[in-house]
């Protein structure tokens, strides 16, 4: 197995320097670097992108390095799709890191081990480094679990799983009416929320590349491996982020407890846990009744919220 890593960068020099140091410290044989070009309507991008390229051009990874530096801005979707297509055309498997993800040293051997273990297991589509519901999985005995939901904050996969990826989501209109996720009220909220995301991704309202894979994985029955403990840190929350412009949430802590002294312990069966998937949908993707109702019925939601606030204000103190 060749140990290859793809780094996808844009305009944040401090993030790029951190991820370069983390990759250089790992046992990597080939590094692929893709950097998007400056946006035409953002003059400050010119200097920021130049600073990123200067770091990438001078950094010593201690292995083979291949670069793709865009001369013009491709956009979030275009740049990542180009990067993944290039990477998986050259490599049969590997790790993918966007520049705001800082992997712990344990992340790399975790991925190498599981890339090898599940190479010929078609149900497993990817390996992630995060666990947005960590407090709800600490009781499991295995070092990881399975989910139907694709995770992008540090991940690994195989060319054979990636070949069917379609950034245009051409099957979505045909599948939309029949698309379902989960059961009961939780399933209703999950289905409505993901349909909303997929509608906006298909129409281009959301400039992203990952909801396409979430759709494909839900439809095709593929699974992502999530570690029981976080193995990466996402530093991409804040005002300069493309999609996560809010403060880092409580469920996005730093790296966790697995150590490479032993192979990761597998669950007893290859199957997702319905309750854990519902929690991932709720906390990672905002698929809950409140969000769905607020988006689809904003006027009535406002009335109900004000009524609750009024009633709570009228309550007599106790004790």
Major sheet: order of its strands? 3-2-1-4-8-6-9-7
Cα end-to-end separation:
66 Å
Give the total of beta strands. Answer: 10
Task: Please give the share of residues in helix.
Answer: 40-55%
What structural class results from the helix and strand content? Answer: alpha/beta
Rounded mean pLDDT is 88
- The ordered H/E elements are EHEHEHEEHEEEHHHHEEHHH
What are the SSEs and their pairings?
Layout: E1 4-9, H1 13-24, E2 30-35, H2 44-58, E3 64-69, H3 75-90, E4 93-98, E5 101-103, H4 107-117, E6 124-128, E7 144-147, E8 155-158, H5 159-162, H6 172-175, H7 184-203, H8 210-220, E9 223-227, E10 232-234, H9 274-285, H10 289-296, H11 298-314
Describe this structure in words.
By secondary structure, the protein is an alpha/beta fold. Helix content is 41%, strand content 15%. It folds into two domains: 1-99, Spore Coat Polysaccharide Biosynthesis Protein SpsA, Chain A; 103-287, no CATH class. The protein contains eleven helices and ten strands. The chain has an eight-stranded mixed beta sheet, sandwiched between helices. The chain has a two-stranded antiparallel ribbon with strand order 5-10.
């Amino acid at each position: 197995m060749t140990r290859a890593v793809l780094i996808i960068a844009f305009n944040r020099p401090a993030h790029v320097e951190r991820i370069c140091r983390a990759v250089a410290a790992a046992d990597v044989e080939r590094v692929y670097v893709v950097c998007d070009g400056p946006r035409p309507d953002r003059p400050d991008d010119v200097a920021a992108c130049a600073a990123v390229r200067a770091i990438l051009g001078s950094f010593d990874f201690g292995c083979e390095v291949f670069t793709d530096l865009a001369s013009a801005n491709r956009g979030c979707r275009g740049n990542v799709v180009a990067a993944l297509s290039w990477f998986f055309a050259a490599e049969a498997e590997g790790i993918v890191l966007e520049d705001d993800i800082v992997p712990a040293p344990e992340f790399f051997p975790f991925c190498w081990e599981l890339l090898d273990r599940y190479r010929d297991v078609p149900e497993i589509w990817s390996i992630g480094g995060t666990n947005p519901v960590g407090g709800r999985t600490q009781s499991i005995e295995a070092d990881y679990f399975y989910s139907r939901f694709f995770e992008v904050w540090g991940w690994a996969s195989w060319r054979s799983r990636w070949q069917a990826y379609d950034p245009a989501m051409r099957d979505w209109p045909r599948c939309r009416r029949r698309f379902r996720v989960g059961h009961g009220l939780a399933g209703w909220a999950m289905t409505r929320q993901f349909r909303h995301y997929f509608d906006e991704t298909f129409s281009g309202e959301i400039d992203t590349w990952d909801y396409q894979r979430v759709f494909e994985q839900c439809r095709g029955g593929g699974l992502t491996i999530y570690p029981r403990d976080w193995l990466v840190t996402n530093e991409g929350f804040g005002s300069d982020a493309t999609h996560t412009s809010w403060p880092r949430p409580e469920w996005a802590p730093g790296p966790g407890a697995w150590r490479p002294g032993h192979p990761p312990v597998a669950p007893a069966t290859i199957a997702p846990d319905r309750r854990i998937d519902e929690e991932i949908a709720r906390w990672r993707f905002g698929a809950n009744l409140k969000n769905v109702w607020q988006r689809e019925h904003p006027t009535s939601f406002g009335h109900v919220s004000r009524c609750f606030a009024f009633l709570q204000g009228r309550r007599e103190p106790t004790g």
